[in-house]
Every structure is written in structure tokens, then in C-alpha cells.
Design goal:
- The chain is mostly helical and 176 residues long.
- It has helices at residues 3-9, 15-24, 32-46, 49-59, 65-91, 105-108, 114-128, 131-143, 148-175.
- It is globular and about 50 Å long.
Length: 176
């Protein structure tokens, strides 16, 4: 399934997602790798199989094997970190100062440019709602040379992919 097929499968009430998916697929402020990796990491974070298959079919071929692996790794490690760090941030107290004792080696050696990996981690953190992680990754990507427009573009991709997954989930549940 392609991105176009996914767009065509969205109901009329999700016309905005259809339009936004088309526009963001050619977002000019991001490099091809940044854009494709953001779509892939976001789709995985949204956990909808149909959205994942469509996004990976469309954007997977635009990535090197290393970049595709890194985008998947960003979704995976943020799936862990977003839960842990959201907890430590919200609960506070001693938890915030305790070492995480979680392996996250991929962050140090993602196999792609660190800024791209951090951008994908930022998009996934936005989907997962971890404010502490969003703040941390946003600082790294801006310090690494990306501008606010590029950060915003990645978050726009994450939000539209998420809205698409929500819509597909709803339609599948209502049809059952």
C-alpha cells in the first residue's frame, strides 16, 4: 500500500489529513532523509499496522538501510525513554535524580547523522507526549544546526501521521 492509497482510504471527514499528508510528503525544509525518517519513526510510534505499512512502502526506499534502521531505532528507544522520563518528570522527587539504568546505546551511535536521529526522536517524543524528552531533543537539534522551521516541520509530520492512525483505528473499530 502506498501513501496515495492510504490518503484515498481516509474518510471525507479526514480531508485535512489527506491534504496534509500530500503536502508534508514533499516538505522542502527537511532533507529527504530527515523527512522520510520522520515519517517512518512517527508511523511506528503510532502503532497502526496499516499506517506503518503504507508509510514504510512510501518512505522506506528513500532511506539507506542504515537510516531506515535508525528511524526504527528512534521509535523503539523513545518508546522506552518517553515512558521512563515522563514518569520521572511528572512524579519528581528522588526519581528525577536516580540513574535510569536503561540501555540506550543507539542514541550515542545511531548509524546516521546525530541531528537526524535526534529529530526523529523528537517527533516520536511528541507523539508519546514526553515533555522532558521533547525539550531535550529540541535543544540538541537546534544546537546541531536545524532551525525552528525544520523542527516545526518534523512535528507537523508527527501530528498528521498520528491523526491518520487515529482515523484509521476509528474507522476499523466502527466497521467491526
Amino acid at each position: 500500500m502506498s501513501l496515495e492509497a492510504l490518503r484515498n482510504d481516509l474518510p471525507e471527514y479526514a480531508k485535512d489529513q489527506k491534504l496534509n499528508l500530500g503536502t508534508l510528503a514533499a516538505e522542502p525544509s527537511l532533507t529527504q532523509q530527515q523527512r522520510a525518517g520522520t515519517f517512518v519513526a512517527s508511523a511506528i510510534a503510532c502503532r497502526n499496522a496499516r499506517v506503518m505499512r503504507s508509510i514504510l512502502a512510501e518512505f522506506g526506499p528513500q532511506l539507506s538501510p542504515e537510516a531506515l534502521n535508525a528511524a526504527k531505532a528512534a521509535a523503539s528507544v523513545m518508546g522506552m525513554n518517553n515512558i521512563y522520563y515522563r514518569f520521572t518528570h511528572l512524579v519528581g522527587g528522588d526519581y528525577a535524580t536516580m540513574p535510569a539504568k536503561l540501555r540506550m546505546n543507539v542514541i550515542g551511535k545511531p548509524g546516521v547523522d546525530k541531528v537526524d536521529f535526534e529529530l526523529w526522536s523528537l517527533a516520536v517524543s511528541a507523539i508519546n507526549g514526553c515533555g522532558m524528552c521533547m525539550e531535550s531533543h529540541e535543544k540538541v537539534v537546534v544546537h546541531g544546526g536545524l532551525g525552528k522551521e525544520q523542527v516545526q516541520a518534523a512535528i507537523r509530520i508527527a501530528s498528521v501521521v498520528h491523526a491518520t492512525a487515529v482515523t484509521i483505528d476509528a474507522e476499523e473499530a466502527l466497521a467491526a
